[in-house]
């Protein structure tokens, strides 16, 4: 008697089996991480926020600024966890999406929270000792308050990754497929909003840092609605004489050239004097020769497309060398070989 042949493969059945394995793995990871997340939220809510309110170590406005909507976020996690433990993923996550605005509010307050914590640790000995006492509890496992405060934003990124993976590996005709898809979309939109808020905070920090480095009339008002892109050294090429190193700050709408102060300056050593401010809308950047990846660098020229002087320090056209050196920002570092070659035959 002939033995029966191998069972015919079914691609649809195999695909569904893969979906189920990935879905089960993602669901297990979401549940385990949610339990740990809720535990850490509860530690801060109990040992910091609750005790601070009871003892009055911090005034209510300072406490609100420091922790923001922490208790509401903790409550949202308390509501979500029972659904995850019972396997009602779609229903639980759809209800959780009603609390996503709390994460946007928390992200908007994160810089004020960080600055408030640093200020209170510096000014209040009583608060500093309280924080050290609470952080020394075995429940915190060596974690500090400053490590726990960004926890909701970190968890939001985990929510996005896990819920999107859960929705993608759910069979289309599953009863909670639409709920998971809608939850994944809402969580991704919230994560994008939080990312935009974080980018704006970083940009504001860069602008304040650059403003502190600069002095001069043209450097005022630098923090009004522009984005910092990068900074670095370039060699400004004069009509005659040696090229001069200048620090350039590139923003979304202007290019700023600054002259370094003498290192032996009594009060402002390490700062810069603003020498030129080029509005990018009225300038054209041209490569004269070479490039940053070449052996000798290159020469760039910036010109005013409107035909009038950019400022009282610079004429219509300005040129500077773009050297090449092994550096993380090699387009902006100095090179002696480029210094000798770039200024020959150039005009201002």
Write the layout of secondary structure elements.
Elements: H1 11-55, H2 60-67, H3 70-85, H4 89-96, H5 101-123, H6 125-135, H7 145-148, H8 151-168, H9 177-213, E1 214-215, E2 228-236, E3 244-251, E4 254-260, E5 272-279, E6 283-290, E7 298-304, E8 317-322, H10 336-342
Parallel strand pairs: 1-5
Antiparallel strand pairs: 2-3, 2-8, 3-4, 4-5, 6-7, 7-8
Helix pairs in contact: 1-3, 1-8, 2-5, 3-4, 4-9, 5-6, 5-9, 8-9
Can you tell me about this structure?
The chain has helices at 11-55, 60-67, 70-85, 89-96, 101-123, 125-135, 145-148, 151-168, 177-213, 336-342; strands spanning 214-215, 228-236, 244-251, 254-260, 272-279, 283-290, 298-304, 317-322. With 348 residues, it is of the alpha+beta class. The chain has an eight-stranded mixed beta sheet with strand order 1-5-4-3-2-8-7-6. Helix 1 packs antiparallel against helix 8 (151-168) and helix 5 (101-123) packs across helix 6 (125-135). Mean pLDDT is 80; it is low at 307-348.
Span of the ends, CA to CA:
97 Å
The poorly predicted ranges are: 307-348
| Percent of residues in helices | 40-55%
- Average pLDDT figure: 80
The total beta strand count reads: 8
Largest sheet: 8 strands, mixed
Helix/strand structural class: alpha+beta
Shape: flat
Secondary-structure element order, N to C:
HHHHHHHHHEEEEEEEEH
Strands of the biggest beta sheet: in what spatial order? 1-5-4-3-2-8-7-6
CA gyration radius, whole angstroms: 29 Å
């Amino acid at each position: 008697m002939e033995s029966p042949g191998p069972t015919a493969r079914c691609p649809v059945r195999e695909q569904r089996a893969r979906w189920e394995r990935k879905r089960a793995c993602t669901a297990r990871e979401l549940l385990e991480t949610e339990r740990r997340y809720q535990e850490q939220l509860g530690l801060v809510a109990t040992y910091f926020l609750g005790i601070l309110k009871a003892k009055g170590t911090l005034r209510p406005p300072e406490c609100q600024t420091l922790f923001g909507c922490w208790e509401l976020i903790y409550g949202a996690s308390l509501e979500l966890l029972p659904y995850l433990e019972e396997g009602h993923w779609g229903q639980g996550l759809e209800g959780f999406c009603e609390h996503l605005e709390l994460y946007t509010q928390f992200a908007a307050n994160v810089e004020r929270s960080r600055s408030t914590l640093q200020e209170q640790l510096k000014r209040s000995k009583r608060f500093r000792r309280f924080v050290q006492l609470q952080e020394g509890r075995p429940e915190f496992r060596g974690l500090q308050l400053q490590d726990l405060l960004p926890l909701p934003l970190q968890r939001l990124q985990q929510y996005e990754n896990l819920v999107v993976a859960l929705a993608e590996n759910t069979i289309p005709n599953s009863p909670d497929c639409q709920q998971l898809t809608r939850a994944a979309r809402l969580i991704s939109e919230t994560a994008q909003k939080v990312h935009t808020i974080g980018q704006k905070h970083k940009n504001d920090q860069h602008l304040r840092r650059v403003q502190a480095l600069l002095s001069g009339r043209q450097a005022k008002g630098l923090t009004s609605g522009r984005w910092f892109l990068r900074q670095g050294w370039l060699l400004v090429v004069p009509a005659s004489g040696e090229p001069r190193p200048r620090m350039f700050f590139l923003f979304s709408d202007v290019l700023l050239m600054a002259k370094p102060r003498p290192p032996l300056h009594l009060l402002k050593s390490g700062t810069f004097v603003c020498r030129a401010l080029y509005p990018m809308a009225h300038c054209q950047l041209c490569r004269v020769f070479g490039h940053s990846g070449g052996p000798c660098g290159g020469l760039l020229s910036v010109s005013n497309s409107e035909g009038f002087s950019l400022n009282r320090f610079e004429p219509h056209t300005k040129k500077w060398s773009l050297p090449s050196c092994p550096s993380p920002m090699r387009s902006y570092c100095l090179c002696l070989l480029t210094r000798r070659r770039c200024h020959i035959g150039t005009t201002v």
